[in-house]
Amino acid sequence: MKYSSLAYAKLNISLDIVSKRPDGYHNLKTIMQSIDLYDEITVKCTRGEGIKIETNLPYIPDNSNNTTAKAVNAFFKHAGITNYNTNLQINKNIPVSAGLGGGSTDAACVLRILNEMFKTGLKHKTLEEIAGTIGADVPFCIDGGTKLAEGKGEILTDLPKIPESHIVVCKPEFSCSTPELFSRVRLEKLRARPDTEGLIRALGSGDINGIARRMYNVFEDVLPNGKADIESIKGILLDSGALGAIMTGSGSAVFGLFTDIDSATVAYEKLKENYHECFLTKTINTTAPVKELEE
Q1: Which domain holds residue 186?
Q2: What confidence tens digit (pLDDT) does each residue in 280-295 have?
Q3: What is the enclosing helix (H) or strand (E) of 148?
Q4: Residue 44 annotated to the active site
Q5: Which of the following is catalytic: 16, 106, 137, 143?
Q6: Is 10 annotated as catalytic?
Q7: What's the pLDDT tens digit per position in 71-127?
Q8: Last residue of some domain: 111, 137, 159?
Q9: DSSP state of 186
């Protein structure tokens, strides 16, 4: 059995840290959005045991630390499936350690593929529950679209779709450490918070300017010194006509929201002069279909 699908990246249109939990994690309130930037995942299952991971990037873990391996184990455990050898082929396009949910969306894609492959018929809600055991962003990536995520990211609420927009994503050479950024957060000292409720109202009315004005990520307030590239990228995006520009997730990728392709293309071409990982893409509100492949 051999199946494939696409794993779409995500953006944080806004990101707020609400409180610290007794378990050491933080409660978040973030609006997330899928974009048409994706990894390509192929899963082949045969009788036997073990998981083999092949990728186009040499530094991606090919062992049990990979989120896709965790997804396979979690799915088989939930479904009571045994005695299957799983081969995972991952063609990475989404930048790694960028705040774009690359590992999370890959894991979610594997869950969706296995659900189709084994005809288990698990509903999205059940897949999201399995996903929550793998990572904070994985539940969102099961269905994608436009959603409010709360708790660690597992409490999801569907929101009105963002008007289709052009997106320019740019990742500087460095990555940000998520644990380090969380350790730098002092909730009482955060100088600003996103207007999440206002952003939800803007989504409801299709007010793209109102959405862009309210985009905000509190992690930008706690970036270590030497992260000037993030402000530089934001400046180029805004100067080129972006309605808004912020860092996504815990970074280091930055994105700009555009209503016209010409301005987005200008920004993309300017950024490509100095940054290798730049993408001209758009918002998307569906997951990719799962396809059966010939052996």
Answers
A1: 166-282
A2: 999 999 899 999 998 7
A3: strand 146-151
A4: no
A5: 137
A6: yes
A7: 999 999 999 999 999 999 999 999 999 999 999 999 999 999 999 999 999 999 999
A8: 159
A9: -
